[in-house]
Amino acid sequence: MNHAxxxxxxxxxxxAFADLGDWGVDELRSEYDPSGPSIRINVRSIENMKPxxxxxxxxxxxxxxxxxxxxxxxxxxxxxxxxxxEKAANEFAHELLVRS
Length: 100
Fold this sequence. Notes:
The protein has helices spanning about 5-10, 45, 50-75, 80-100; strands at about 15-20, 30-35, 40. The chain has about 100 residues and is α+β, with helices and mostly antiparallel strands. A hairpin with a 4-residue loop joins strand 2 and strand 3 (about 40). The termini are close together. The mean pLDDT is about 90.
């Protein structure tokens, strides 16, 4: 099983695929909801991808949102700067992709 999915299961996070709407020039790939906790992957982002490409995209999206879950729970410190948080989330996602 993909390491990102294993980690989501470990944290008790549900994963759903949903239409997250139109964001204009920006693309909302996924979102984390701490109240679930849950992660939603935007089906609009993957609808025209080949299976391998979609698999990589999903792993990266999950990894990114798992980083934010770890921030939310206090497992890791929340960086003060939003850009730094997003960069760190992307780096964590890439680490998970390599492990998958």
